[in-house]
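Entry 14: structure prediction run for Protein-tyrosine-phosphatase. Input pasted below.
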Amino acid sequence: MFANFLVRPPVPPKPTVVKHSDRSATLQWAQYASSAAHQPIIRFSILVAKTEDGSLRVVSTPDNRTTIKIDGLWPNTRYSFSVRAENAVGESAFGAEAAFRTVGQAPRTAPKITSLTNGTTPFCVELSWDFPELEKEITPIVGFRIMIHRVGTGALREWYVKGNKVRAQTLCTLEAYADYVLTIEADNGFGYSPGETMPFRTDESAPDDPPQLIQIRPVVRGEALYLTWREPSRPNGIVTDYVIYFKDIPSKREMSRLSLSVSPNEPSKAFAYNLTKLLPTTRYKIQLAAATSKGEGMRSEALLADTDYSASRETPAVTNLSFSCDNSLLTLQWTIVPSAIPTGANANFRINLLSSLGQSRIFNVSASETSQKLFIDKVQQSERISLTILATVQSRADPTIWLDGPSSAPAHFVLLAAGWKCHFRSTACPQALSLSKTTICEHFATHSINTQQLFGGQQADQQRGDANGPFVFLIFGAAITLAISVLFTCILRRRCFLFKAFLRHKKDKKNHQKRGPLLAEKGHHIRHKGAESTSLVQRGTNGVQDSVVLPPITVPNGAAGTHTLNSSNNIFSGAETTNSGDASCCDGPEDGDDDEPEELLGMNDGRAATTTVSVLHFDAYFEEMSANANAGFKRQFKELELDTLAMLEREQAAASVSENCAKMMPSSCVNGIMSNNEGEKFKNRYVDVIALPRKSRIQLGDRKGCRQHYINANYVDSCDVKRAYIATQAPLPHTFADFWAMVWQERSNVLVALTNMVESGMKKCDQYWPNCTGDFVQADDFRITLNAQRTNSIFTHRVLQLTKTASSNGKGDDIERTVHQLHFMAWPDHGVPDSPFPLLHFINYVAELIQCPTATAFSANVNGTLAIAAESAPCVVHCSAGLGRSGAFILIDSLRRHLLSCDRIDVVDQLRRIRRQRAQLVQTLEQFIFCHEVLRHLVANGITRQPRTHFANYVRFLLSQRTPAGQRRIRAQFVDLLSCPHRPQQCAPPTAQCVPLPGYHRTNEFLLCFGMPAEREEQVWHKLWQCACQAIVLLDSCSDGQTQFDVPSQFTETDQNGAIKTINLIKTDNIHIHLRRDDGKELFIRLHRIHSTALLHNPWLQIERLQCELQDQHRGQLAVLELGTAVPSAVPFLFCVFQSAACQLEQESAVDVLLWLALYRHAVCGCWTEQTEVELVYRKVLELVELQKTLC
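Run finished. Output tokens:
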């Protein structure tokens, strides 16, 4: 028998630091093999040695575990750790040491700013500071980080100052007279200290820009010019003076200088001045400049302006006043000094005739006539006539005003006999040689002319006229009463909806009785004499409207039918609407709050609608505004920005600004406006974007007894309906409950999201919905459940169930509603989408859902109860800030709605109106132009997304109807597809180039490759390998369909590190290809060959076979390659259109053919070359629709 005995354990292995912080370290060491004589190990002890001062301490584990956390360490300090083991016999020696340095700790106190002053220039500031107080264990400072934020814009500048001895820095390249917030932080190599913050304003400087929107117009009578302007966009300080430089063009002298002082407390940004003591009928050159206390800024561009004409100072002289008995005409001739009429002026001679018979006549003769002569008829024998002449000039300043010169002396005439002998008396007889032998002219002696004698009979006539005075007054009064009645009736027809409806009902009833019904019994197209072709309506056997044959503008109207508008010449009007010339088509809404101060686009406020455009002229209007680098759009957008600025200034005047904000950071307010409520500030995603104006803000009701009314959201009107939208910011995590409370309160059932979660590395939106189907998230009183979700290459449609829990509604049970979220993800912040067609498709999809939540096949198939909100429930729209993209969506959609009942729109006026409900909607000029581009395509093509039930009528419409220009609709679409949207133009890709194309499911669903010549086949295969294509569709145009397809035995690629790797062909046959890279990565590709003729004859059979053969391979990027042709054709693009349209029709029960045609044109200009290609697509999609009807 052997006795059991124990010995001390061996030395443990060296420990390893597995986790650490600035004041702790976690050690771990390996289990080591030992004999039974060493077991069991009771505990381990760790020797902690501080290298710098040699201090030691021992820490033991509570048991035999091989890991321990050592606390109480100093930051940025070197330590060594060693382990020993202990059993019942004793302890081993400490093992090998593990050296380790703890992490340093960032400074805990901020540096102190001692001074911050303006520098030697307005663009610099001088900063000095003191070092922060550091604890003993904190590592010394190695540098300072200085950050300057521009208040209002969020722009950031950053400086880093190295060294621990620097205590001052000059910071330059700032803007003059701008508000900033400076933050300085200390750095010790392990992090930054808290920041010391100080607001400041840079010094004034001379303005960078001249005054804006300078306008000059002449003043009547020619001695002054009226100037108006606005403050420079960058005044760089308080403008103290405006300087006007002017000179007349003929003069060679220097320009005169006139300085105008501005009142120190002048709040207005718009100014006007009457520049007097100028020469009439003279062209002046004028420049304006603004000045601050630091100097005068740059002058504006030279403007030319003409002063008004002056009245003539010369008197016409009568040279001939005679009578011809042959034609019974009185001839008047006169002369005037040629210089009396200004060159280029519109001038007349006015002749006043006064007769002894009590009649007076006025004649106007153009001064441009070569002969200054007038023939007067109806002259009676013994009638005494007096004539005066004056020159009158039309004012250049006001064309309604004529400037009269001095009148000539009266010329007198009396016809004594008009028989075979012509005898008259005149003050201006012609020369004797010009008179016939039977004509006698006697001169009036000036002293013998007696006015009483000459016009004695006029007094008697006047007395007779006075006797008829009451009768004339009665007739005049009746005429005035009639005119007022007509005017009042016109006002009622335009303003009063009830009266207008009554008149329209009478008119419709009368027209119906006169013309008979407009609709055919079996849906045949009808045309009446003198009328446009009407909409085509199909009716069921019971007389109820079943469907409407497509007009291009189609809006679902519930399950009962569809509201349709169409005519052959105007796709926005039809038999169901009033005539386009009738003002009633643009009248105001039938519903809405009467107390809203803002009017709608359809309500005529009596102002000149200079930007109202008919749909027939919208394309020409777009071209005109786009000319000269979008000069027209730039001018309009600048005026809108100034209008918004004026609105915010009025808001500032009405609001009380926080005293602290005014003292510390006066420009941290948005244009001088910021909420005084800290709780409201906390709810804004961006500090410079708040819900303005206040009158259109959403006011939330109380929840749980708390009055939390503010949310960054505003009501926005459409053209015809008040509060049709809610524009809001993307909700923050702490405002999710407010957001859903607003949706619940306003009974909204459609949410439109126009932003991604993260854009350009910055968070733009927080996810306020669940991730997976069936999951839910809780936001205070609300539970949000994701019932269903469908994603395509353009947008995502989510069906959410919004539940107000029983604990909060006071009714003892949960209340549920269905909310649809439409998420468009292809719109960059402050930018625009690449093409307008996906957005148009998205807007039409949203419109269908708003009109009827079960309109789409997806929403109709979702299980659960659909709570349909009231028609007046607003659509909630948000991007990130709720301004740019949200405003563009609202502007386009509101005008789309307006076009359903009116044939003209005013984009500028509608944007001005909605900006008065949420400031800065449509933030950038690029977005403003993009809205016009989208509307241009909408006006040209109508609503191209068509449900399956209407598609046949839509195709017939395209093939048979014509535009106002006489083109067939299908031809107009093709001509538009021929245009290239790229600048510079991008032509069809060269041979062997691969182009990604979007499909219904993904934005890069197809990879289109054009030919494979031997010298370029490696580029194509490199692209196929890079995209990991698992399937290739070979479109063979050869007659036998057996064009050889070669696969290289080997090709190379270069990875990110520059290493060249070889890909080898392992196996190939007619169906499969197997590739392997030298590092072992493999790619299996399946081939599918389709004859081009078979595809064009029956594309749906070929696509169905393709889906069955490829199975799961089509989930990746599908490569499409054309064989057997030297020149790329449209066949690969047709294949992609067929595939995308079929998937869309299957998923949505609707299809938008133009969407895919335009997207592929946008990717490759010139992909469509023949109109027959476009017609083929429509006809084949129609065959698929009819085939699906047969199968169903």
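Notes: The chain has six domains: 16-101, 112-201, 212-306, 324-445, 621-943, 978-1191. Will compare against the previous run tomorrow.
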